[in-house]
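Record type: monomer structure entry
Structure origin: computed from sequence
Chain ID: A
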Amino acid sequence: MRISPRPTRLLLCLLLWASAAGAREPAPVRLTIVATSDFHGALEPRFAKILGGREVGGIDILAAYFRAIRRDNPGGVLLLDAGDLYQGTLISAASEGRAVVDFYNAVGYDAAALGNHDFDFGPIGYHSVPTCAEDDPLGVLKERLRQARFPFLSANLLDRRSGQPLDWPNLKPYVIFERRGIRVAVIGLSSVDTPLVTNPANVRDLEFRPLLASLRRVLPEVRQKGASVVIVLAHVGLSVDEKSGAVAGHLAELARSLEPGEVDLILGGHEHVPYVARINGIPVMQSWPNGQSFARCELFVDPRAGKVLQERTVLHEGDFVLRAERDGQPVRFLGRRMLPQTKYVRLLRRFKASIAHLQSIRLGRAAADLANRTGLDSPVGNLVTDAMRAADDSIDIAMYNAGGLRTSIPCGEVTFGRLFEVVPFDNNLVKVTLTGAQVREILEHGLAAQYGVMEVSGLKVVFDPEAPAGQRILAITGPDGVELDLAAFYVVGTNEFVLNGGDGYYTFARGKDIQNTYTLIRELVASYIKAKGTVGPDEGGRYSPRPSGSKAP
């Protein structure tokens, strides 16, 4: 009997096809990276000017967005934060940031960079800077580190005395995750200007090393441990010139200094502006602050080669955390309706109940909007400094750094809750005697520095904005029109932050007769509003820009 060769040939074809199929390249693995930054205690919803006043944020709806992303890519998501988690709102400050970390734990953050304002609360308790030898200036931060079920990251933060990494609970230079079989390293960096933009008294024993050298110190280590993907999570920012489109800032400098393939993604913050683009071929992203939006990126990894396929990387434009469409209908995101999550509605209700007695305290009324801006003649800055000068008859001049005032006061009822968001930092009023020349030096620094002017009460300043830094002031006069005497002495009321050199204001410490009143400036402003009943923007003119060729008063 003769056996037909057809089955044999068919079997051979099947074996060859199976062999070829097995030799095909495995499909790329999709990883979804989500990052927030500069949350600043924004547990409650707020209205976004950039969206025409639409309501955004709130932990109950933010959690819904995160859940949708995880359902879209099960097992392939990393949720990160680029720092400044809990400083900035009464609802967070009432628990010294515990409420925010409770939320981050519950919603499942994987890691957070250490931001400059994460140092702000200082010792555990009422004061934000040490008041005795037993106070640990880092007490609150260490407590939040112990509380967090995710690591805080900073590869460039060292002990100043030993030059070694800090042995703190839950603080690491980097962490390596595994997602869908891919090892992902996340390296943290903190802003090198942190000692200038938190209270210097709290970080005097810390050293913030240069970014690039610190990053390169750990890059070989994470690659050696098998990381196929390297993400830099930095509380470091960049800015974009509106006219030229030029990108500047420490984050941009870092990206431009790296070689191709050293890192696969950079996530930044600190500057409170969004950015989504490539710099030097590296994807760079940062989101809006206060829980208004998040950055989202899709990385595709060749599992066999262990490399990110950069040509397939998808950078999503900033995803706003909208609470509803304009017609009131739920927002659809990744094919799902975004509805407040019941678990977080209850959590937010509990947080709000803890501060209800403070939030609703009525102080007075604002006759019109009092805008906050770091430029010239900020109505909020004028209000705060006027309150400081009115609190003590011995004060000739009051000064408050513009960067320390964080939001505006809208027309209508002014509550303590709103005032807290305007003046969120627990700064005491301090008095110091300065010469007129030292006062001028401080004002020149404010006009030249990147942090905004020095808000003033008791002075009017005429300056040339085109003159070289340090030489811009044309005239300084008091309320009576008399010119400031550079040789005379003046009692200046200010805050502890600048007295300690914050924002680079080193001149205050050279003054005489320094007195700490141990009275919070926020409380002085509250008393001032209550006493006046109604407050409004004054006529302005405390800073008058004028070309040098024109005549000064």
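Annotation 1: The chain has two domains: 29-352, 361-545.
Annotation 2: The longest strand covers residues 293-302.
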